[in-house]
């Protein structure tokens, strides 16, 4: 069975307001604590019994955590702040719909994740490209000169990808600010 529903602007505004609250909370929280709370939530959710639409987005939470923890990627602000706010929201068991309500408890988390994943699509794509490039370069360089060359190439690729992310963010912000 497939159930489809449409979110109206007022519905989406409720999610934006909830995200704004999470963003305020994330400013006071230590990033390590936020990541640990998200990991704890993932570990303690009944993923096996969760609906497929939730499981699909939970895999993305894992990727967001990996992106934050990847020192070589060094995700810059404001994208880093968006990811942290998303994890704060996800980690709160008493968000718009309490997580312990069977079947629908994670519905709001799935919707929020979907909204943010769409917003962060340029970041996710750039990170995937960065990881692929890093894998191409390999990490088993035998000598120091080769390791330095690889580090330089990786830094150049990261800078180019993050510059592209920044341009995409500015375009998206300009498009959302312009009258329709």
TrEMBL record:
It is found in: Endomembrane system. The keyword Acyltransferase does not apply. Its main location: membrane. The keyword Cytoplasm does not apply. Residues 151-178 form a coiled coil. It is a multi-pass membrane protein. Keywords: Coiled coil, Membrane, Transmembrane, Transmembrane helix. Residues 83-113 form the DUF1232 domain. It comes from the Bacteria. This is DUF1232 domain-containing protein. It comes from Dokdonella ginsengisoli.
């Amino acid at each position: 069975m497939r159930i489809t529903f449409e979110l109206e602007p007022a519905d989406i505004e409720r999610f934006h307001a909830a995200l704004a609250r999470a963003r305020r909370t994330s400013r006071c929280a230590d990033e390590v604590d936020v990541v640990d709370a998200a990991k704890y939530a993932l570990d303690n959710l009944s993923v096996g019994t969760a609906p497929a639409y939730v499981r699909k987005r939970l895999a993305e939470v894992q990727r967001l955590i990996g992106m934050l923890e990847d020192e070589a990627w060094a995700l810059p602000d404001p994208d880093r702040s968006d990811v942290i706010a998303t994890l704060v929201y996800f980690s709160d068991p008493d968000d718009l719909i309490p997580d312990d309500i069977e079947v629908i408890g994670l519905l709001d988390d799935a919707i929020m994740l979907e909204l943010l994943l769409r917003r962060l699509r340029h970041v996710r794509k750039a990170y995937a490209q960065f990881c692929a490039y890093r894998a191409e370069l390999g990490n088993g360089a035998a000598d120091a000169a080769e390791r330095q060359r690889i580090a330089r190439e990786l830094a150049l690729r990261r800078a180019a990808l993050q510059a592209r992310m920044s341009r995409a963010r500015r375009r998206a912000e300009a498009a959302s600010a312009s009258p329709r």
